[in-house]
Amino acid sequence: MTPRAYAAVLFLLVAFWFGAAAFTLLQEGYVSDSVLREISTYLVFSTHATAARDLGFLPISLPVLGYGALAPLLGPLHPVLPYVLGVVGTALLVLAPVPSIQRQIGRAGTLLMVVCVALNPIVLWFATAGGGKSIALFLFYGMCVFLCRIHDRHDLNAYVKFAFCGVGFLLADPTATPVCLAMLPWIPFAARPAFVVTQPLAFYLITCTPVAMTLCALVYLNWSVFGYVAPFVTPLNGGPGQDFPWNRVLPTAGLSYRMAELLRFLLYAVVFFPSVVMFSGLARASRDMPYLAIVLSLITAPFLVLVCGLPYHPLDYLPYLAAPLLVLAQRVTPSRRIALLGVQILSVGVGWGALALPGWSSGHGWTEALGGTPVALYRDEMKVGQWITQRDRTTLLDPLAHYRVIAFCGHVGKLVFPPGDAGAIQGRLPAADHLLVTPPDSSDAQDAQVDRISQSHPDLWADGLPHYSLALEQGAYRIWERVR
């Protein structure tokens, strides 16, 4: 079997494993908050061309553009696209270093390494619940590879490819912005010492200018449309701990509490990626410097986010540790290959064992569904969406807060959205036959957004409006219906 055929067989096996896991999750009722957001975003933007202000971000990210390009080909089956992108994208990531690893440790060792990475709980979560975010992880891996090539040989193609991957990374995931900023102080590690000493400014200009220009363009577009830049630094998954109990967005206040969470992030990094942390601490030779720069960037990124008071939870950056792991597998010295394989095998058992401990896995989330236990996620949102779908009359709701309801509706043809400007919402609401609202005081640190309609009209949830009667109450949701 040729190396290409062997890599193709491995890809099919890994993709089948990820696909089977995703199918099991769907069968047991698990659905990712990230996937629901992608489906809702496509539905809103495909129908309302000027909905950027309503959703709070610009439709220029690569997952959104890819979803929009492929969804018309699938028609009503388009909700499977995030899962396809997640499975295929993560499988390509796991298989990307196979040719180089195979030359070093043979087919048996390569198979063992691929199996260990594919069984990693965080990698598996990303493949089955991350949706189009796998594009961002793949591009970050590309940045890591080309950063190492820049160190090994000052190849012009490596500089160009690093820049293109950096630009794509910024356009693929909001969490990419802190990672790119955190890489700035460590990126000189990727250059040879003589080059850094003689021409440090030139090295920064070559490697960072395209990324910096893209970042400035994103910030300007975001500021010109919304007046602030926060949407480009939003959390990866806005769900309230639906996957793991420590997967929750931190409040912007309380620096000491947020710093404690940084220590928890480092703990999770050791638990789920012990080989990355262990071998980065052993980096002494010059050839290990770019790898060390990558690891230090990922450790610095959450610190930067925490200090700036931006939304954050550990699951934002844990998946990115798969990239330095794959780089390490390619660059490890012959004397350390057996040790790397041993630690990686041990990490699979440690990671799944940690999730089996009481308190580490949610009682209604990803871990239980993967084990075959039915879960009931977003049951209220599903019933509200079904109720709206069965009516022919229009419904007013906030797409920023109720994206899950929109995803379960499956279409937005009869949905009405409030204006994006907060002052306009406080005025006269757009005419609609139904009003969907949640309590105005339902905001907490774990909610991605709050209902702007209910906040601007505090009495609406409890009392409705004149000539409206209560038509549905499901959980925290209420739908007021205009009396004909």
UniProtKB/TrEMBL annotation:
Membrane-traversing stretches: 80-98, 110-128, 134-150, 162-189, 201-221, 265-285, 291-312, 338-360
Keyword terms, alphabetized: Membrane, Transmembrane, Transmembrane helix
The keyword GTP-binding appears for this protein: no
Top-level taxon of origin: Bacteria
Protein name (record): Glycosyltransferase RgtA/B/C/D-like domain-containing protein
Species the sequence originates in: Gluconacetobacter diazotrophicus
